[in-house]
Design a protein that fits this description.
GO terms for molecular function: dihydroorotase activity. Keywords: Hydrolase, Metal-binding. Belongs to the metallo-dependent hydrolases superfamily. DHOase family. Class I DHOase subfamily. Catalyzes the reversible cyclization of carbamoyl aspartate to dihydroorotate. By secondary structure, the protein is α/β, with parallel strands linked by helices. 29% of the residues lie in helices and 22% in strands. The strands form 4 sheets. Strands 1, 2, 3, 4, 5, 15, 18, 19 and 20 form a 9-stranded mixed β-sheet that branches. The mean pLDDT is 96.
């Protein structure tokens, strides 16, 4: 049996800092040829897709999602959210360990891999969770199979807050895994929360969220984690920066592949500000909090000058009923995988970021940072994870086109100028013109370590 062949003609290929006109030949799971022009008459049994000057990018790699399975599947599951991801041009995801049960043993990790192997539409990996008492399990993790170790140094669920300094230093010293951290200082947050509860009870106005989960709480925790990484030599990745102040903790002096300490920013911190709480309410309640306009600008500046290395979503859906609760009971987090790339393309239209930089931060850099094998680039011999983008095909986010199980989006009512028209996962056309194809081509991510 011969491998299925697809030829993408007349593409504007966005890859490695440049845009070039060319054709891409896919055979089976892989890109086998990239050329200025490839003649389909010389290829037997080839399916030709003429994209007529549209942009072709590598599939995005989202290094931080919460798909809620197992245990929280009234909010989301791997099947529904991975479909939303490929509709949004995200072909690979790395999912977090704070499910129920938590992914803090090898057994629970393997159960998640088993679920994803059957239901995921996008390529997948999972982070292993650290606690105050599971170092023995952490040391059993195979670095070739697992993206990283996730530590909650703030805002954890269950027993996943790692708040014992001795344990923390032990983990940083002993693990060979990349350590990814959520940094917010719990003591500072508790004190701030108490102050506002004394004033308002549980019905704290949402606008005070960035004062409760403050710049001080973020900076204190981030700086401590970085200090510990420098002391122990650990490889540290700081998730979802939300303040301009924190960006000064990171460097752009060396190439990403040589960095020991890296940072991420999420879509919501690049898009929303504290001025949006009046309209959006708890729909934009995240941890860490969306903060000021100057924080948003500072984060974008650090992203563009390479102090911040990757863009992610921190996709974390909750039901409408949960979000409708009073401040202290409304959970933090929101769904983003379907709308992240369209939002960035909107920022491109606004002149804030280039297409090349979007691809660098969403595709190339996650692949470098996590040492993901054969993904994140448009290269011969690489998996054909590809996204076709029409920069002039507007659409509006509405209830009936939101694909998340939770059925809502903080972007509802927003009109985006750009659409994702095709998504290829491992050479299979999985999504085309707002419709899904009945193929399951996803694979487990592997790491070159």
């Amino acid at each position: 049996m011969t491998s299925k062949k697809t030829l993408i003609k007349n593409a504007k290929i966005v890859n490695e800092g440049s845009i070039s006109l060319g054709d891409i030949l896919i055979e089976g799971e892989y890109i086998v040829e990239i050329n200025k022009t490839i003649n389909p008459k010389h290829i037997a049994d080839v399916h030709v897709i003429d994209v007529d000057g549209k942009y072709v990018m590598p599939g995005a790699i989202d290094d931080q999602v919460h798909f809620r399975e197992p245990g929280l599947t009234h909010k989301a599951n791997i099947e529904t959210e991975s479909r939303a991801a490929i509709a949004g041009g995200i072909t690979s995801f790395i999912e977090m360990p704070n499910t129920n049960p938590q992914t803090t043993t090898i057994e629970k990790l393997n159960e998640k891999f088993e679920i994803a192997s059957k239901t995921s539409s996008a390529n997948y990996s999972f982070m292993f969770g650290g606690t105050n008492d599971n170092l023995d399990e952490i040391l059993k993790v195979d670095p070739k199979q697992v993206a990283a170790l996730k530590l909650f140094l703030g805002s954890s669920t269950g027993n996943m807050l790692v708040d014992n300094p001795e344990v923390l230093e032990n983990i940083f010293s002993k693990t060979k895994l990349l350590i990814a951290v959520h940094c917010e200082d719990e003591t500072t947050i508790r004190q701030n929360l108490e102050k506002y509860k004394n004033k308002f009870g549980d019905s704290i106005p949402i606008k005070y969220h960035p004062e409760i989960r403050s710049e001080e709480a973020c900076y204190l925790s981030s700086s401590k984690a970085i200090e510990l990484a420098k002391k122990t030599g650990a490889r540290l990745h700081v998730f979802h920066l939300s303040t301009a102040k924190e960006t000064d903790l990171f460097s752009n002096k060396i190439p990403l592949k040589d960095k020991k300490i890296t940072a991420e920013v999420c879509i919501h911190h690049l898009w929303f500000t504290n001025k949006d709480y009046d309209e959006k309410g708890t729909f934009i309640k995240w941890n860490p909090a969306v903060k000021s306009q100057s924080d948003k600008e500072g984060l974008l500046k650090a992203l563009l000058d390479d102090r911040i290395d990757v863009i992610a979503t921190d996709h974390a859906p909750h039901t409408l009923e949960e979000k409708a609760n009073v401040y202290t009971k409304a959970p933090s987090g929101g769904p983003l995988v379907q709308h992240a790339l369209p939002a960035l393309l909107e920022m491109y239209h606004q002149g804030k970021i280039t297409l090349e930089k979007i691809v660098e931060k969403m595709c190339h850099n996650p692949a470098i940072l996590f040492q993901i094998e054969k993904r994140g680039y448009i290269k011969e011999g690489y998996f054909a994870d590809l996204v076709v983008v029409d920069l002039n095909l507007p659409w509006t986010v509405k209830k009936d086109n939101i694909l998340y199980m939770c059925g809502w989006s903080p972007f509802e009512g927003t009109t985006f100028k750009s659409s994702i028209t095709h998504t290829f996962v491992n050479g299979c056309l999985a999504y085309e013109n707002f419709k899904f194809n009945a193929v399951k081509a996803a694979k487990q991510l592997t790491f070159n370590r």
